[in-house]
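Hey,
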Amino acid sequence: MEMVRCMLSHSTLPDFLWGEALKTDAYILNHVPSKSIPKTPYELLTGKTPTLKHFRIWGCKAEVRPYDPEVKKFDPKTISSYFVGYSIGSRGCRFYCPNHTTRIIESDHVIYFKEGSSGDVSMQPRTVEFRVEHVDVPLPFAPAMESVPSTLIQNDAVEPMVDTDVDHGVGEDVPNPDIIEREPRRSGRISTSTQSTKFRDYVVYLQEHEFNSVESTDPVSFHEATFNSDHFHWMAAIEDELASMKKNGVWDLVDLPVGCKTIGCKWVFKTKCNANEEVERYKARLVAKGYNEREDIDFKETFSPVCTKDSFRVVMALVTHFDLELHQMDVKTAFLNGDLFEDVYMDQLDGFVESGKRHMVCKLRKSIYGLKQASRQWYLKFDNVVTSLDFKENVVDQCIYLKASGRKFIILVLYVDDILLASNDVDFLCDTKQMLTTHFDMKDLGNASFVLGIEIHRDRTREILGLSQKGYIERVLDRFNMKSYKPCTTPMQKGEKLSKSQCPKDDDETAKMDKVPFASVVGSLMYAQVCTRPDIAFVVNVLGRYLSNPGLPHWQAAKQVMRYLQGTKDYMLTFRRSDCLELTGYSDSDYGGCPDDFKSTSGCIFMLAERAVS
């Protein structure tokens, strides 16, 4: 408290900022050594030596440039503020802005004034009186951090809440409560959130192409799977999953060490369908409850790359131009191949607890599905294997690999557990498949025809390859009840200008728009635009500007895009053999076309062999 008293006394800032001063005090103590231990708490936690170059005098004056997309050209770019602390999780700092609508802002775009000038020079430092109260605060037991001072603050992971409410349908301009949007099955946990529908729309569909328009009857628990009408299929899927885990040596049964915590697990069941909505197989997956993992203790890095859609289209253009063989493979239980370097303990499986070992837990040796680091560990393992097989990683896209031997070559495209192989030699392709099969449990799908929700139509006699999302578009239209609407010929009306002036202006309009799944529609359209439909790129970009507060005209414009897709769902992004394999780019821009801030909108397209790839 002496440090906090000194900070407030030396500065000219108001007393209610004592909390910011206290957090800064803890931050400083975590970065400096003490008499009790030879190292700083920061170094004990991270293993890195802290730097003090970014330290500033608390309360010093600064000019900050906050992020504001609505700022005009002649508006002031900075605001006067006072430094009050350091950001957690970013490189910026916290500033107190007495004349700004947001009193406390975080930014790394700042200019500090002379260190000696703290606050307003017209104000004199004053004495701050404190009432000291001794309060006993129980601290959580953390044996792994016993040697770290109590000033080191650790945040436990919080279990995420997922809303189970269902958005209303899109059949009318004014939402009809009798029509509802069909959504993927979500978690059964009940959220206490009272947010409106437009904010609940921000549900991330990581595998948007896997949405099934048919009512899902997949079980949500092991108990439900045992009494399901297809329980024989589900039990076979469970046995197949357990066999894969046993083969990969995923865990060992051990006694839980003192002071360590376990994470839970659950079964996830999914009916996999093909492009024609026919049941292909029943899939059971054991998933760890990774949301209980703690950063720097249970995991460190989580990022895992996947190939971009631009790279995918470039490979398709090369396949068509050189008439390459194009095959597809799938890695069974891909994440179970990743090696786990942290000590993570998991509860035994529901329904499969070994007799006489009920008190024991599973010490994970492999990165099981659900762990935050699972996808990264799988990518690292796959990268090590393919590079040892003489594949060279692309310098631009880390998930594109090339291997050459004389005149023969093969291109490998990785998207999580889906693999595309393109080669000019069939024998070379088969040898590569055999090498991959020796390292991973693979499923050979033959000639590529359906990947990432994209249908691949190829006519080698006419030297044509087409990419279609007809099935995905039909599912989107069915999901938002737009299949019966009359198609239109353009995605946007000629001369139409969407602006913020069309946003709701009163509570009644806002209440009506709260029932509209605007953000879900835009997100679904965006996946089609990114993959195979560049013709709707502009209108989707414009609609995305109003996700936070859409109005009725914005909603009508989104429905017109879906009507346009209804009439053009058979369109394909087509690649043909060309006499000139040349990369050409085109760009254009309007002049201050945005009615809100008069900024210009630019666009570009790149073509390889006269076909769009980016």
